[in-house]
Amino acid sequence: MRLVDDPVLEPDDVIALYRDSGIVRPVDDRERIARMFAHANLVVAAHDDDGALIGVARALTDFSYCCYLSDLAVAKRHQRHGVGRALIDRVRARIGDECMLLLLSAKDAMDYYPKVGFAKVENGFIIKRAR
Q1: Does position 65 have pLDDT exceeding 90, yes or no?
Q2: Whole-structure pTM value
Q3: At the N or C end, where does the chain have fewer CB atoms within 10 A?
Q4: Quick count: other Cβ atoms within 10 Å of Cβ 3?
Q5: β-strand 2-5 against 42-47: which pairing, if any?
Q6: From CA 80, how far away is CA 75, in angstroms rounded?
């Protein structure tokens, strides 16, 4: 596995990864996926030995105080092999010790995040997107 910081990713490759990984994102809206990556300021991609995209972490951060990990997606056949942990570790290394890392978890992933160092928080609020 090879990790790449701030890669230029093709929306179709990201969509294929999202569909395979099980993450719920607007995969039928190619332009929206492209905008999601164009405006993220921290992206790490994982590629297999053949160069295929097998994982991605997409985040928004100020590199000083907080970082929101918006997407963590790993291809099904590569899950439970350390790819997600490696992506998280790279994000943490890039944001540094002064910066907190936070996320919203899908229901099915609630058991995963404590295993890779996240603590559950109870003091959050959300205004959900309209679409």
Answers
A1: yes
A2: 0.94
A3: C
A4: 16
A5: antiparallel
A6: 10
- 75-96 pLDDT, tens digit per residue, is 999 999 999 999 999 999 999 9
Q: Do 72 and 88 contact (CB within 8 A), yes or no?
A: yes
What gap in Å lies between CA 41 and CA 64, rounded to an integer? 13
Paired with 67 in beta bridges are 61, 101
**Mean pLDDT, residues 35-63:** 97
Alpha carbon separation from 48 to 24, 40, 51, 98 (Å, rounded) = 23, 23, 5, 31
Look up residue 53 and give its two tokens: 């995209």
| Residue 98 · residue 65 · CB < 8 Å | yes
Residue-level pLDDT at 34:
98
Of 122, 121, 52, 44, residue with least CA distance to 84:
44
In the numeric block, which tokens belong to residue 114?
Answer: 């404590």
| Cα 48 from chain centroid (whole Å) | 17
Read off the tokens for 50. Answer: 């053949």
